[in-house]
Amino acid sequence: MATAAEWLEGARPRTLPTAIAPVVAGTAIAIADGGARWELATLCLVVALGLVVGVNFANDYSDGIRGSDGEDRVGPLRLVGSGVAEPSHVEAAAFACFGVSAVAGLIITIMTGHWWFIIVGLACILAAWFYTGGSHPYGYAGLGETFVFIFFGLVAVGGTVYVQADHVGTAGWVTACVIGAMACAVLVANNLRDIDGDRVSGKHTVATKLGHQGTRILYLVLVALACVGVIVVAALSTWWVLLGLLMVILLVSPVKALATKATGMALVPVLKNTGLAELLCAVGFLVGAMLDRPL
């Protein structure tokens, strides 16, 4: 039986900024566009948190039963791979989290009257499961970053803006690209850490295809594009949004680690700081929007 602490570690709390940031950034754009609907923003946050924790448990289950999480794996505890939890229990935890997201999403649908949100919600859950689940997981085919950009960037930010403002707009889509790029940077850092183990287990990621040096360059390109994107969003909305560039403070250490060719466990802080940088960027957007349009 896994302990509560082990379940918490298995939920991978370091990834939670990738759930919170899109909702915070999307709400910022809604404020800049006329005003937020905080009850809907809160429900969007529940949806996002449920999906991220759910996909973490789903990955733990699917990778565990495939044998991708061997004893030589680098990184946080995996419940199934380490044998501390039954696979069926981890699978149930994943679907319980998806269920929470589905209920919150249904409430949003009822409140807004946009019934096509159900299709979007179903697509999000399917994408979360088939990242490493099923007979042909797209995460094993080097498509993880593409789907992360779509669902943790375009869908998450765009959806948060839309449910509050009934449209997205150019500033909203550029914001979605900024957050999507940062979410991809988190995944790239994760896959760089796991590159050697993934090659042995036959898991094909962008990192295993690009190699160590190519993956490091990809990370740097993503964070650079995100920084440029913040400037574009500011030009399209309010210059207060430039507060999002405060994330550069948290990116100094990860960039230095990649530049010095850190590997293995030395990359764990890179994941943490990149996720926090994404969240700080979103908070900068929100504070900037609130300064421009005081409540």
From TrEMBL:
Entry's Gene Ontology cellular component terms: plasma membrane
Main location (coarse class): membrane
UniProt-recorded Gene Ontology molecular function terms: 1,4-dihydroxy-2-naphthoate polyprenyltransferase activity
Broad EC category: transferase
Superkingdom in the source lineage: Bacteria
PANTHER family the UniProt entry points to: 1,4-DIHYDROXY-2-NAPHTHOATE OCTAPRENYLTRANSFERASE, UBIA PRENYLTRANSFERASE DOMAIN-CONTAINING PROTEIN 1
Designated name of the protein: 1,4-dihydroxy-2-naphthoate octaprenyltransferase
Highest classification ranks of the organism: Bacteria, Bacillati, Actinomycetota, Actinomycetes, Propionibacteriales
